[in-house]
């Protein structure tokens, strides 16, 4: 890393289906501004969300680089899926567009991957799921991200993980049944991945009201932003 790396400021962005957040962090991952948040616009097109990010940028002050957590599959800075946003995000070169727009280096990754980068210990098989508008997921082996994992729309029971455990599933089934389904999903995911540890994040993780197994823990929702600093170490 360059000698001045300890002075690098990261503008961390977390794009979600319900809300969009942004904050500046120092090189150690400590916040140096207040968190900015606004509701996700409807329609949640690239243009409408980029306009919100411009407002965040102007209010937060100067920074050196940008990290973006995006709710969908991301490869080479391009957003390939966006089930809880607008179809115009499919194939959108967000990393390139934002870098040109702000003239700063930018990295974009799946939002659950970014959250995982702040949470993982870097040993063994570690799985991250996020309970929010949708159902995010990321997988790490010995600290290395396995790219492209998308559990949300994988068939489970009669529908998908996201149908049962996303925001709409919580509303439809109610908190008690939603927790029962989550317990079952944790057992299924352990049988599938044989993970050493599972981390549960996302805004709806606060609704988890059962005792988690020993190898499962909840992580702060703030990790979705703090992981933006760690993204530059991967």
Short summary of the structure?
With 234 residues, the protein is an alpha/beta fold. The chain has 2 domains: 5-111, ATPase, nucleotide binding domain (Nucleotidyltransferase, domain 5), CATH 3.30.420.40; 114-224, 2-Layer Sandwich (Nucleotidyltransferase, domain 5).
What this model shows, in words?
- The protein is α/β, with parallel strands linked by helices.
- The chain has two domains: 5-111, ATPase, nucleotide binding domain (Nucleotidyltransferase, domain 5, 2-Layer Sandwich); 114-224, ATPase, nucleotide binding domain (Nucleotidyltransferase, domain 5, 2-Layer Sandwich).
- Helices cover 31% and strands 26% of the residues.
- It is built from six helices and 14 strands.
- A five-stranded mixed β-sheet has the order 3-2-1-4-7, sandwiched between helices. A five-stranded mixed β-sheet has the order 10-9-8-13-14, with helices on both faces. A two-stranded antiparallel sheet has the order 5-6.
- A hairpin with a 2-residue loop joins strand 9 and strand 10.
